Amino acid sequence: MFVKIYGRMTCPFCVRAKTLADKLSTEVEEFSYEFIDIIEKDMSKEDIAKAIGVAEVKTVPQVVVDNQPIGGCTDFQAFAQQKFAISL
Fold first, then answer.
1. I need a labelling partner for 27 at 20 to 30 A (CA). Which of 11, 78, 82, 88 fits?
2. Model pTM?
3. Average pLDDT of every residue of the chain
4. What integer pLDDT is reported at residue 87 of this predicted model?
5. Which CATH code, of 3.50.50.60, 3.40.30.10, 3.30.300.30, 3.30.450.40, is assigned to 2-84?
6. Residue ranges per structural domain of the chain
7. Terminus-to-terminus CA distance in the chain, angstroms?
8. With contact defined as beta carbons under 8 Å apart, do 61 and 1 qualify?
């Protein structure tokens, strides 16, 4: 499973999603992720929307699991809890 997280390190929800992905990468076999710092990459919300294939992005983080957008931090936490019984 490959996860992309679009966010910024000044956002507490983005940091929380990245921390959860760090935890999953150590506890779940075949889990890997990439954190894309939108400030560092000079990406706008419109750029993120194009990259993940959605009409509009209102908030960050935006989490994509195996090329499927699942939403933000709370969505990612719910996904991890349901799929792996792991929470932050």
1. 11
2. 0.95
3. 96
4. 72
5. 3.40.30.10
6. 2-84
7. 19
8. no
